[in-house]
Amino acid sequence: MNLMKTLTLKNLKLNRKRTIVTIVGIILATALLSALVTLVSSFQYSMIEYQKQKGGDFHVKFSNVKMSELSEFKNNRNIESTFETMGMGFAKLDGCKNEDKPYAYVMATDEAGFEKGCFNLIEGRMAKNEDEIVIPRHLKTNGRIDIKVGDEITLDIGKRYDSNTESVIWENIAYEHEAETLTDTVTKRYKVVGIMERPGYGMEDYSAAGYTFVTYSDELAAIDNGTKSEVNEADTTLTVYSRYTQKALRNKDAVTADIIGVDEKLFEKSNNSSVEMSAEESDRFLKEMENAKYDIYINRFLISYECVFPIDGTFKALFTVAAVVALIIILTSVYCIKNSFNISITEKIRQYGMLASVGATRRQIKSSVKTEAAMLGVVGIPVGTMSGILAALILVKVVNALSAGWLNFALSFHTSLPALILAVILSIATIYFSATGSARRAARVTPLEAIRNTKEIKIKSAKLKTPAIIGRIWGIGGVISYKNIKRNKKKYRTTVTSIVICSVTFIVISYFMSMAFSVVGMSYASVDYNIGINMSCKKDIDIEKLSELLSGIEGAKDYLVGAGYYFDVDKPEYTKEYGEYCGQLYDDREDVSQEFFITVLNDKSYDKYASDAGVKNADTGAILVNKCTFDVYNEKSSKYVKEEMELYKYKAGDTIRCGYNVYDDASSDDNAVEGDTESSTEDNSGYVDEETINNGVRKTVDVTIAGVTDKVPTCYNGYGNTSLLFMNQKGFESLWADGKSGNELKPGNAIYSAYVVAENADEYQDTLEKETAENPEYSQISFYVSNMDKQMRDEKSLFTLLGVFAYGLIVVIALIGITNIINTLSTGMELRSREFATLRSIGMTDKQFAGMVRLESVFISVKALVIGVPLGILISYLLCVMMNRMDDVIIYEPPYKAIILCILVVIMLIYAIMKLSMTKLRHNNIIETIKNENL
């Protein structure tokens, strides 16, 4: 056995070129696998750290825990660690502009709480004693109270008390307004030492009535340090944030149910979205949760990121993609490395025959091949692993550079030992499967067959017939080239397959990137503004004052401000076409009521719109947009097609009776959604059902049509396919001026929006946000700004980021393929050196010899491209069909640039490899080459 190992090592040294090429293939395969698992590990680690920062480093939060019960959590073997907070109470904030959040909620914690809670400092430091406090940033941005680091504040801290229910109100319950007061207040003076981001949902509910202020607790610090016992503090309640062990995470529902004292199976079923609970089970579960020992909050995102098995939906897609990519890498690498071993077997076939003839067993010959694979792996795998880690580090830096400004978190580089071990195991498996087939083939060869070396070529004379045109055009060199390719199909099939894989991958990914950027362009093609603003306010907004604000900011080239109101019209005068369309949607009902959306524009925008639409005397009524595009089902093609149609028979001077609802308190309808710009109907026709119409107090108003057009105002974003009417403020107010027909109350809850064409959208957004934040006149208005330029840049950056990974994958797969091609062609040329020397010895000139090699390059390239290019076009077309959407139909256009580039690179690559090999053979001595039995 030692002799076989010695022979194997000597063969590797003698065939340095093939050894190096094979090692390079192993390095590339291992590097790609290592980079893949490191990137997945880095992404998972980054998501975990991001969630810890935003939501806190805990798995389950237990509220209303008595101090005497704290030891139950500390000693629970399923809990890895805990930190605690203590609710000190609420204090009224003078001057707070948010009517639903009038309090400061003061909580205390210790070093562990500051470290593991989601208290992210912006300025200053954390509190170090009970006289210091940290305040949240949204106290200023949302509550409009400006407190700076270093200021001293006095708070009257007490309990929230509901006079209606005569009970204490807990911290996360929404503000009850007149129903609640503060009781048992204690005055406390603090020094503000830091400003932090708003705590996550697990620490401050979005509906919470108080802004979270955090101070230090000497008592909690003493308990954590073991210098004080919690036994005698039974009346003090805490909130315990627990972090489970990895084993407990796999059974998190059972562990949590046991702690809070509820039925384990019911609790687990309630947290499993794929299992539906019966009505009886739901009632039982609700009753159990009402009587549970503690209230809980589950940090589900952190659990899903940390709990690898079972795989949660959050990472299922990521791991699936990684598994598919790993499979592609392994298959490609096995093909490449297997080819190297096949060439090695072909070179040493006589050697194996002679060894077999002197007594070497099949097992020893197999072992020789596997030993060769192991030696190559010992060199290639460590180098490949380190290269993969380095490549992943570079990619992480590239990702962070490309995603700066739009990705919510920075990708952190992280190596995982289990992940790297997995990559090494996959690499070993790749080498093993590559060598196994070759080892069996070497062991099966008999001594006689090996010495004769005739098994490699088995052909019939009919298969070697050469087309006459090849001989006429290229002469004897062309005939020999053609016959050689026919004769050595297996070797050249490997080269062709490698080229096909690389060509198809490059064409498909190039098309995907091109299509992705086209889709982004299509998505924003119809948008003629770059700043969109939605506003919400419980009171009416003066759109003229708002217009002055928007137009007064430097860089505003055009703008539009509108207040939108929904109305419904009973049995409007449909056109025949639109009436049939609505009838199809609603089972041929004739009593369909239609939703109309009246937008009140600022005067300047309305006058410009009326002029563009050709409507005179527009102040006398409303302008109706009477054309719209719908997705209509075509029965012949069984597809939805876009169809533009006129909607109504109305003309200038006609009147439309519009209905609306008035609630008891129209200005405080809690059903309004902040920033919502979508129609409340479920389809795109604007249908309003009777239940909606009859909800609330029914009112009507008559709207006169001043003109009909198919245009919408410049910058207007629109509200789906709702029927649109536009008016100015004066005309809209005149609808209620006479108080007739019971229309004395206007509809509440207008949808306010504005659109701006800015020279520089980023600068405009910064200025707008600064002015609205600092101006108390806008303190009651919530602004939601959409920077369309930034959104488009972000989407393009996302696809660029995907492109980095995609083209990186192409490069590595191409490198694996190229090493395979180099290995096959260069070794093939060397193995044929005796053939070439014989041809030259009988009179073949250097020109004929060069022509023959060039023709082989052409034949190989053409065959690979004839398969690869059409296959790439086909797959890219199928990708286009899969990605097509009804609203953005993508017309397929082959990626011509990628195809041309692919053709040129393939031809140049094959020719360059064969040219280099041919140059080396020219310098060989003809007689010595013919005399050589092997390399």
Automatic annotation (TrEMBL):
<feature type="transmembrane region" description="Helical">
    <location>
        <begin position="317"/>
        <end position="337"/>
    </location>
</feature>
<feature type="transmembrane region" description="Helical">
    <location>
        <begin position="896"/>
        <end position="914"/>
    </location>
</feature>
<feature type="transmembrane region" description="Helical">
    <location>
        <begin position="798"/>
        <end position="822"/>
    </location>
</feature>
<dbReference type="GO" id="GO:0022857">
    <property type="term" value="F:transmembrane transporter activity"/>
</dbReference>
<comment type="similarity">
    <text>Belongs to the ABC-4 integral membrane protein family.</text>
</comment>
<feature type="transmembrane region" description="Helical">
    <location>
        <begin position="373"/>
        <end position="396"/>
    </location>
</feature>
<feature type="transmembrane region" description="Helical">
    <location>
        <begin position="20"/>
        <end position="43"/>
    </location>
</feature>
<keyword id="KW-0472">Membrane</keyword>
<dbReference type="Pfam" id="PF12704">
    <property type="entry name" value="MacB_PCD"/>
</dbReference>
<feature type="domain" description="ABC3 transporter permease C-terminal">
    <location>
        <begin position="809"/>
        <end position="925"/>
    </location>
</feature>
<dbReference type="InterPro" id="IPR003838">
    <property type="entry name" value="ABC3_permease_C"/>
</dbReference>
<feature type="compositionally biased region" description="Acidic residues">
    <location>
        <begin position="667"/>
        <end position="681"/>
    </location>
</feature>
<feature type="transmembrane region" description="Helical">
    <location>
        <begin position="496"/>
        <end position="525"/>
    </location>
</feature>
<feature type="transmembrane region" description="Helical">
    <location>
        <begin position="416"/>
        <end position="435"/>
    </location>
</feature>
<dbReference type="GO" id="GO:0005886">
    <property type="term" value="C:plasma membrane"/>
</dbReference>
<dbReference type="InterPro" id="IPR050250">
    <property type="entry name" value="Macrolide_Exporter_MacB"/>
</dbReference>
<feature type="domain" description="MacB-like periplasmic core">
    <location>
        <begin position="19"/>
        <end position="216"/>
    </location>
</feature>
<feature type="domain" description="ABC3 transporter permease C-terminal">
    <location>
        <begin position="324"/>
        <end position="447"/>
    </location>
</feature>
<dbReference type="Pfam" id="PF02687">
    <property type="entry name" value="FtsX"/>
</dbReference>
<keyword id="KW-1003">Cell membrane</keyword>
<keyword id="KW-0812">Transmembrane</keyword>
<keyword id="KW-1133">Transmembrane helix</keyword>
<dbReference type="InterPro" id="IPR025857">
    <property type="entry name" value="MacB_PCD"/>
</dbReference>
<feature type="region of interest" description="Disordered">
    <location>
        <begin position="667"/>
        <end position="688"/>
    </location>
</feature>
<feature type="transmembrane region" description="Helical">
    <location>
        <begin position="864"/>
        <end position="884"/>
    </location>
</feature>
<protein>
    <submittedName>
        <fullName>ABC transporter permease</fullName>
    </submittedName>
</protein>
